[in-house]
Automatic annotation (TrEMBL):
The keyword Signal does not apply. This is Membrane protein. It comes from Halobacteriovorax marinus (strain ATCC BAA-682 / DSM 15412 / SJ) (Bacteriovorax marinus). Coiled coil: none annotated. The chain crosses the membrane at residues 20-37, 44-64, 80-97, 109-127. Its main location: membrane. Keywords: Membrane, Transmembrane, Transmembrane helix. Residues 15-62, 81-127 form the TM2 domain. One of its GO terms (cellular component) is membrane.
Length: 146
């Protein structure tokens, strides 16, 4: 369950884990931690430049707490946990378990049969997973309210 943080009388849900961020940072020269924190463009740059020759990778060690805070504010919490979906994507994305977890049964089975649509679907999910989860969580929250 996500942790609630009160900061300056503002309720913020800790929906992205710093621990997972740092574990992904360990492989940061690939930019995975930047994708996790919703920074797709710089994640792609890190992927193709080796974390800007390792310098950006080292700097990111100190930036992860602020990236985590920004992400916690930007994305809604809900039934679908960002951390679970990201761990599934990173470890077994080609099997589509992250899509099955999000309730996207059809594309989950398609990923399972095609190796994540031959890898292209995994790249797509690295770019859009936070937004996909956010959309599901917002929709479910609004359906419970209204």
């Amino acid at each position: 369950m996500p942790k609630t943080i009160i900061r300056n009388d503002e309720r913020i849900i800790d929906n992205h884990s710093k621990l997972i961020g740092y574990l992904l940072w360990f492989f940061g020269f690939l930019g995975v931690h930047r994708f996790y924190y919703g920074k797709q463009i710089s994640g792609t740059i890190w992927l193709f430049t080796g974390g800007l020759a390792g310098i950006g990778w080292i700097v990111d060690f100190f930036l992860i707490p602020s990236m985590d805070d920004e992400t916690d504010i930007a994305y809604w919490d809900g039934d679908i946990q960002y951390n679970v979906a990201w761990v599934l994507l990173v470890l077994v994305g080609y099997l589509g378990f992250h899509r099955l977890y999000m309730g996207k049964i059809g594309t989950g089975i398609l990923y399972l049969c095609t190796g994540g649509l031959f890898g292209i679907g995994i790249i797509y999910d690295f770019w859009t997973l936070n937004d996909q989860i956010n959309e599901i969580n917002v929709t479910r929250t609004k359906s419970h309210i209204g």
